[in-house]
């Protein structure tokens, strides 16, 4: 499949090292808004919308993790970026893992947040794709977002919950379903040992969408990887634990202490 020319926003000093941020399934690049002020002090931050999300084009049919990695390579080439620090949440982290295996020369470091190398629930992803294709993303917005934040944090931030639900509902139905297929058919466990980029794995202790054992498996599989567990935090740990995630990304990319 041909790479999609994904929509991207570039911020920060032009001469700084590049940090590329990849969004989670159902969100857009604005999910990284809380991290931008801190990150742009040190990095040229490139955020993009995964295909079928935000302002990026969608494609008909199923996508693969390799397709999503192709989109990132094409974006980096378009921007003239030879190497970047790569960080991704959920499907963004899965994309980062694939990039680290396939394109090791393009990564300075890798940060994988609230993600998995193998979800182990292929049929549930197939069911979700069928539901979205038949009824649209709006029907899954509430149940999906209910697992993104801890209950206490969600209760204290109803505006954020509403914004996240609207984000899911705005995702292209076919594009979202195609990305579900990418997760459904993905198994990167055998490749983890080939990753050479310094790797940080961030886990939300209360993550019900992709529970902590998935992050432990990544950290155990990638040579020299560091595992950081945050609590309380659910699937979108970067929203719930803003300074901790920002500080961890900066420390990892600059060789500082976590």
Brief synopsis:
One of its GO terms (biological process) is glycerolipid catabolic process. The protein has 258 residues and is α/β, with parallel strands linked by helices.
Q: How would you characterize this protein structure?
A:
The protein has 258 residues and is an alpha/beta fold. The protein has one domain (8-254): Rossmann fold (3-Layer(aba) Sandwich). It is 43% helix and 15% strand. The chain has 11 helices and 7 strands. The chain has helices at 36-39, 65-79, 91-102, 122-135, 138-145, 151-156, 158-170, 173-184, 212-221, 237-240, 242-254; strands at 8-11, 18-22, 44-48, 84-89, 107-113, 199-204, 226-230. Strands 1-3-2-4-5-6-7 form a 7-stranded mixed β-sheet, sandwiched between helices. Strand 4, helix 3 (91-102) and strand 5 (107-113) form a beta-alpha-beta unit. Helix 2 (65-79) packs across helix 3. It is globular and about 45 Å long. The protein starts with 7 loop residues before the first strand and ends with a helix. The model has no long low-confidence stretch (mean pLDDT 97).
Q: How far apart are the termini?
A: 39 Å
User: What is the overall pLDDT average?
Assistant: 97
Radius of gyration, taken over Cα atoms and rounded to an integer in Å: 17 Å
Give the fraction of residues assigned to helices: 40-55%
How much of the sequence is in beta strands? Answer: 5-15%
**N-to-C SSE string, H for helix and E for strand:** EEHEHEHEHHHHHEHEHH
Structural class label: alpha/beta
Q: Please give the domain count.
A: 1
Strand order of the largest sheet: 1-3-2-4-5-6-7
Instruction: Provide the CATH superfamily.
Output: Alpha/Beta hydrolase fold, catalytic domain
Q: Output the CATH topology.
A: Rossmann fold
Number of helices: 11
- What is the oligomeric state here? single chain
Q: Which parts are unreliable, with pLDDT below 50 for 5 consecutive residues or more?
A: none
The rough form would be described as globular
Identify the CATH class: Alpha Beta
Domain AB hydrolase-1: 17-241
InterPro entries: AB_hydrolase, AB_hydrolase_1, AB_hydrolase_fold, PcaD/CatD
Protein name: 3-oxoadipate enol-lactonase
GO molecular function: 3-oxoadipate enol-lactonase activity; triacylglycerol lipase activity
